[in-house]
Amino acid sequence: MRSLKMMEGCKGPQVYAINPSGTTTTTTTNGFGGVGEKLLQNLLSDSVRSRSNHNYQAIKSKDEVNSAVLAEALASYGLPKTDQIEPHIEFCLKPMNFVETLADVYCRMEGCAQFGKSRMFLEQCALFRGLPDPKLFRKCLMSARLHAVDVHTKVVLSAWLRFERREDELIGVSAMDCCGRSMECPGSALVVGYNPESATDPCMCHRDRGKDTGIYMDEECSTSSSRDGDEEEDFDMSFCIGDDEIRCRRFNIASLSRPFEVMLYGSFMDSRREKINFSKNGISAKGMKAAEMFSRMKNVDSFDAGIVLELLSLANKYCCDEMKSVCDAYLASLVFDMDSAMLLFEYGLEENSYLLVAACLQVFLRELPNSMHNPNVSRLFCSSEGKDRLAYVGHASFLLYYFLSQAAMEDDLKSNTTVMLLERMGECASESWQKQLAFHQLGCVMLERKEYKDAQKWFEAAVEAGHVYSLVGIARSKYKRGHMYKAYKLMNSLISDYTPSGWMYQERSMYCQGKEKTMDLSTATELDPTLSYPYKYRAVSKAEENRLGPAISEINKILGFKISPDCLELRAWFLIALEEYEGALRDVRALLTLDPHYVMFHGKLQGEHLVKLLSHNVQPCSQADCWMQLYDRWSSVDDIGSLAVVHHMLANDPGKSLLRFRQSLLLLRLNCHKAAMRSLREARNQAASEHERLVYEGWILYDTGYREEAIAKAEGSISIQRSFEAFFLKAYVLSETSPDSESSLYVIQLLEEALRCPSDGLRKGQALSNLASVYVDVDKLDNAIDCYTNALNIKHTRAHQGLARVYHLKDQRKLAYDEMTKLIEKAKYNASAYEKRSEYCDREMAKSDLSMATKLDPLRTYPYRYEAAVLMDDHKEAEAIAELTKAISFKPDFQLLHLRAAFHDSMGDLTSAIRDCEAALCLDSNHADTLDLYQKVQQRAKEQLPT
């Protein structure tokens, strides 16, 4: 049920269209146009008032009223128009040859010095940001933190890892809380030194010291400590500050620094004086007493923060490195929230205190994006002067501004803050890829802000730095400025100069008309069937011709494998025009699950308001009815329909954590990872009991790569109360962590315990299916059949696939084929069923099933691998390579790369085989088969070198 290949997507551009009547709709303060506001008011009052420019008759039927309101809304806002939708320009790095770039990064990574690996992993992060699987990005981010050398890098990467988990959204969790893992612990980040082995250890720090100590700037320092009775300290000099005389030992003070040594033992008059006037050196008598004590004890633990700040200033003035280091570390330990960080940050900058500034910086980063709403923090990070001040103390870097700009873009893409942070990021860029990324993202933001001249300038800078993909931005900017032919020529030359890709034809289609446009879009889909714009354009074109049925069929093609808000909005729009309000309501509810703040109808009508409009035109449902609908949708593998039902149920019972959890499971199945994690965090926040909260925290930990911690949460939950979800969580994580037979037997026990606990049929069906799968692993096939059969009895339709596998293992291929046929007949989304059924039939039937699977979901890699293997068996090596190359061009999957490397090896093309192995290992450095193949091919390549 929980997907292991979670895609980050679900965000996409909204559909904007001109008003067909040519009139301008005024946007009101509540978020939708004036016409929409009046229509909503009409609906809520169950009446439609006459208007001066319309001759409406009173409508008595409530259904007729609602239908009229929706019809008028559609007419007022207008169906989408083809000339108002545009393809999305990606914000990430997009190399022209992704495979070669991956191979190059892997080679440089292997040859990189140990201390430079963190920088290389950051480059990997930038490459992986554009891939659909967010786990690859997070894995690289963790590796970069693992190999971080300096405190600054540790602080930024630890905060970024936390930001990716959005732990700040968990109720009761503060920014500086230690999560128990050294890699993300705020205390560990401030430890100087390089030890990648310890970064994965459990964290033993305690962050209570700063909270207990507090920051008191005016209290007496404790400098009158005992001197062990009457023991004489052999004082031989004094510092006079005002009327106070601070007795000191000359040797101890001289040992603080070279300047003090020269002052007290050099050829100066002070060197021979017993009393030295120190009144004009900016330190109080209390501070000097503290300095004397430090000269003996070498610590500042007994002083309050105000005195330590004085010592820090004195240490800077007289180059007392040891005292500065101790004061810096002590003050850094006092920073634990925004108040303390704001209070001490300026001191840290003024006194050039590396650790203190790092501690304050850490708070600001862990409070993102909220901390950037503080004008002082924003001014520091956004201005050139602030960047220079940070640089002076060693805390301005490309890494810092890369993180800040990504957080700012998520918070408000078009804001001035985002622009300024990206500018600072560009100023800090030193390597080619860094400049490419900074300039390209600046161009994208300027394009969104409709500042087309500036956008073109930044895109041109990115191209000059080597980012060829930014030519798309230049073309778009020229087009927006009225130079359509220049944009067309630019994209035409790009297609001529490089290996054509789907996105090239997609972009060129923007600048041509008629058959040429249609052909470009067809070629784009052929080269990259995952691009959404061609489907959207074709669907809208058919809608303009009043062919709404074919328009819905077209948009269904991409929604079958890639769900996004903009495509759901389009389909809802078409369904409203057809007065199929139930289907439209389903899509709007699913859309709002992905993006709760989405605004419909060209950014004029809040999605929640449209739900109210549509709800009056469908049969009302009680919570019991919704549960029945959820069972039906779940059993028919209708994930979008299930999402809509859960959204409806949450509207009736918004505090139900169980429903939020179900929502997260559905979103994971749809590869909507960010939305799934948001739902999971909400489930945790709404949990009514401690044992339930621990389960949801366990799933969050599992989904972010912390399996042992997830198991600990499950065990903690079980210790409080035995529950289905706690046992299921522990069993699930253990099955992924320890696949050996002994662990499998323990997983069976856990799942059996889960099934003894109360739960509903949806979850028990999943548990039975998982239990059957483990029985198969330990060769207990009859037990597996019983479990799968019981799962099917409670409508867990996916159990057909497991049952087919068991029949296949029992050499009953006909029964296996029949089971998969039943799944195909029942499932609404059945690409995986066609793919699996292909394993249980002859070659021709298998090719037919796999062709259907690819048509329904081009992201599935098995059909390409199978077809390539068949071609190789038929000695059609070139065709086999071409089949894999076609898939790799839009889905650089390590399995596809491994297979192509093996094919190249068998053909004697060792250079290509090495390249593909390196690219695959860049995606998964621990893949044993690829490592083995890589070593063998390298050895053969060495043997072929001339002696």
From TrEMBL:
PROSITE patterns membership: TPR (PS50005)
Pfam family, one: TPR_8
Swiss-Prot/TrEMBL keywords: TPR repeat
Species of provenance: Anisodus acutangulus
GO biological process: negative regulation of ethylene-activated signaling pathway
Coiled coil regions in record: none
Pathway assigned in UniProt: Protein modification; protein ubiquitination
Top-level taxon in the UniProt lineage: Eukaryota
Ranges: TPR repeats: 765-798
Protein name as annotated: Ethylene-overproduction protein 1
Gene3D superfamilies referenced in this protein's UniProt entry, alphabetically: Potassium Channel Kv1.1, Chain A, Tetratricopeptide repeat domain
Highest classification ranks of the organism: Eukaryota, Viridiplantae, Streptophyta, Embryophyta, Tracheophyta
